[in-house]
Design a protein that fits this description.
Blueprint: E1 5-6, H1 9-15, H2 17-25, E2 33-34, E3 41-42, E4 49-55, E5 60-66, E6 73-76, H3 79-88, E7 94-96, H4 109-115, E8 122-131, E9 134-143, H5 159-166, E10 169-170, E11 185-189, E12 192-198, E13 207-217, H6 220-229, E14 231-236, H7 248-260, E15 265-270
Parallel strand pairs: 1-4, 4-6, 9-14
Antiparallel strand pairs: 2-3, 4-5, 5-7, 8-9, 10-15, 11-12, 12-13, 14-15
Helix pairs in contact: 1-2
Length: about 270
Amino acid sequence: MSPLLDVSDDVRAEIGDEEADRLLAGENAPGSYDCTSCRTPGNPGQERTSTVLFVGGETAVLAFAHASCIPSQVVSVSEEQLQGAVRSITGQTAVPAPAAPVSPASPAAAAGNAGETGQAVLGVTCGQILLGNDLHPAIVVEPTGPIARPGSTGPGDDFLPLLIEAGFLPVTNVATEPSLLPGWSVLIAMGQLHAVLQGNPAGGQPSAWWQAHQPLTLTDGWRASANQRHTVLVYAAPAGSIGQQPREDLLRDALEKAAAGGTLVAAAMPLAGT
């Protein structure tokens, strides 16, 4: 019996028709796996399974995920992140796959896309936000310093205007769920947060707007909530607005203060690409 594998056109183009056909025939498919998104067990013989190809600077790794978690797709990550993922993956979970070399995402991609200063970096805090009676997985992004518009030499902070131009919306009430931002997504792989991806207006693979130097470990509750909703709420505020809050209730308080002061923007993003 052939496995219930989904191989997207993009993945097929990277690994080749021969390898894709072998996967679909069950020759190279795993008997079981840990989902690269939610990290719970999966069985391609019993449930729809997506092939997800992580492409680094020189190598690529083919991983598997529940089709209900993320679709089959190609995801660009840095070579360093990919090698870390390889070390954490067993032979049952992922297999090496050939791919044409691509340029890895710059570690400063977030600052570059938001207005690179060469100094400020984006800090990220993960937590769950209560909207009504429901918990939602959230990411809060805050630079360590002012973010200038590309080409600007002034001391101003253009972080929020640049994000609003990209489609984020000002938050006046944290209790209201943010709108979906087309083209953007949040990459969760091997149970960790790897990147916030920005769609390419010209088509092709998304790029990393923010990329973790080391993937961030997520709590079981956060992953379960993200897996249930398939959507992550991404909040952003200028430097000094939120801070590193040790508890989710304190994070919520800081978000509400930022919203009241007119310094908070947000967007909802699907998991692992569009």
